């Protein structure tokens, strides 16, 4: 179980700052959803948290600076699944998911029975069993997305960063994926941060939402606090009606 703190984080590319002034705390086992219009800086923020971009500010895991950790320990601490992954050629689905077990392997680097059990469980729960022996380059977009997410989940890291994990997935596979992430945080205490375009899914799964607009935080709170018609109109230029499930979870309905 890991507690993540982001303090006054800013990041970008070369001399261009894309996102700045971000501070947030996600308790161990919590789920923070990062939302915002296209080009707001959501993916840049996630990469900065993962330590993949030059940045200012601090990212702390259980009070320790993430980048001060040895690389192997860092890989056991934080897992990241990009929105547009670069997949290695020549690997099968099973081989690729097994890469997620690398931080946990012994000195000889051989996977054991427990590693294979983790992979087989993910193949089943993400509907990939029938693709286990398929080469990565033969997969459809949705199949690739599920495979990349399985590799990240196989790390069993304390903090899980997912960039648009439901992109390219039909509603059934999207729900199955988010259900699995939710189960892992319940079973293992995994701390989850996701970027999501689907605001209704974000509201149903995340404990808190951080709305990024023009590279800076625009709203932060529970889904009910953040997802209001006025806020969505201001930052998305959208006409919406906010409905609610029997449990009080917001459902975003666009209106003509």
Automatic annotation (TrEMBL):
Pfam families: ABC_tran (PF00005). GO terms for molecular function: ATP binding; ATP hydrolysis activity. CDD domains: ABC_Iron-Siderophores_B12_Hemin. PROSITE patterns: ABC_TRANSPORTER_2. SUPFAM superfamilies: P-loop containing nucleoside triphosphate hydrolases. Residues 4-239 form the ABC transporter domain. The keyword Translocase applies. Signal peptide: none annotated. Keywords: ATP-binding, Nucleotide-binding, Translocase, Transport. InterPro entries: AAA+_ATPase (IPR003593), ABC_transporter-like_ATP-bd (IPR003439), P-loop_NTPase (IPR027417). This is ABC transporter ATP-binding protein.
């Amino acid at each position: 179980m890991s507690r993540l703190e982001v303090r006054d984080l800013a990041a970008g590319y070369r001399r261009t700052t894309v996102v700045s002034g971000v501070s947030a705390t996600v308790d161990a086992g919590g789920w923070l959803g990062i939302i915002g219009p296209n080009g707001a800086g959501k993916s840049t923020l996630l990469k900065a948290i993962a330590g993949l971009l030059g940045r200012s500010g601090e990212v702390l895991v259980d009070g320790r600076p993430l980048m001060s950790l040895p690389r192997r320990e860092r890989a056991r601490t934080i897992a990241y699944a990009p929105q547009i992954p670069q997949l290695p050629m020549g690997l099968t689905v099973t081989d690729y998911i097994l890469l997620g077990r690398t931080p946990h392997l012994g000195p000889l680097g051989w996977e054991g029975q427990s590693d294979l059990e983790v992979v087989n469980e993910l193949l089943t729960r993400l509907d990939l069993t029938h693709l286990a022996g398929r080469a990565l380059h033969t997969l459809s977009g949705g199949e690739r997305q599920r495979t990349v997410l399985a590799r990240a989940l196989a790390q069993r890291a304390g903090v899980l960063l997912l960039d648009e994990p439901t992109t390219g997935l039909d509603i059934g596979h999207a729900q199955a994926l988010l259900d699995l992430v939710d189960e892992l945080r319940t079973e293992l205490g995994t701390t989850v941060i996701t970027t999501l375009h689907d605001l209704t899914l974000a509201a149903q799964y995340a404990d808190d939402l951080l709305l990024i607009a023009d590279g800076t935080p625009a709203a932060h709170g529970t889904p009910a606090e953040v997802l209001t018609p006025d806020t969505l109109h201001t930052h998305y230029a959208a006409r919406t009606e906010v409905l609610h499930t029997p449990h009080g979870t917001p459902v975003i309905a666009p209106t003509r």
